[in-house]
């Protein structure tokens, strides 16, 4: 599968693909490629808060991966998507 930014059909520069290189997206994509699918609900633990770029792009990526709910824990705080 060719990975492109969820909101772009043809990225014009690397800034359009920035969210795919961040840890949250990268981990989800690697898990999807390794297992062929992901569960409907995913829990993720990260070492810092999710950035605004990822927050904006993540819903479209989750939809493409078949994930309906992502729960992210960062530094003892829980953030639901």
SSE blueprint:
Elements lengths: L17 H4 L1 H13 L5 E6 L5 H14 L3 E6 L2 E4 L1
Parallel strand pairs: 1-2
Antiparallel strand pairs: 2-3
Helix pairs in contact: 2-3
Short description:
It contains three helices and three strands, in the order H-H-E-H-E-E. It is an alpha+beta fold and 81 residues long.
Mean pLDDT: 78
Shape: globular
Largest sheet descriptor: 3 strands, mixed
The topology string of helices and strands comes to HHEHEE
Give helix % range: 25-40%
Rg for CA atoms: 12 Å
Structural class: alpha+beta
Q: Give the beta-strand count.
A: 3
Distance between the termini: 25 Å
Q: In what order do the strands lie side by side in the largest sheet?
A: 1-2-3
Uncertain spans: none
Task: Provide the β-strand percentage band.
Answer: 15-25%
| SS field, number of helical segments | 3
């Amino acid at each position: 599968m060719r990975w492109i930014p969820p909101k772009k059909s043809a990225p014009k520069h690397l800034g359009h693909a920035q969210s795919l290189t961040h840890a949250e997206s990268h981990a989800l994509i690697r898990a999807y490629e390794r297992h062929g699918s992901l569960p409907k609900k995913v829990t993720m633990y990260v070492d810092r808060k999710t950035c605004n770029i990822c927050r904006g792009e993540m819903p479209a990526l989750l939809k493409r991966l078949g994930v309906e709910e992502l729960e992210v824990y960062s530094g003892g705080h829980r953030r639901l998507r």
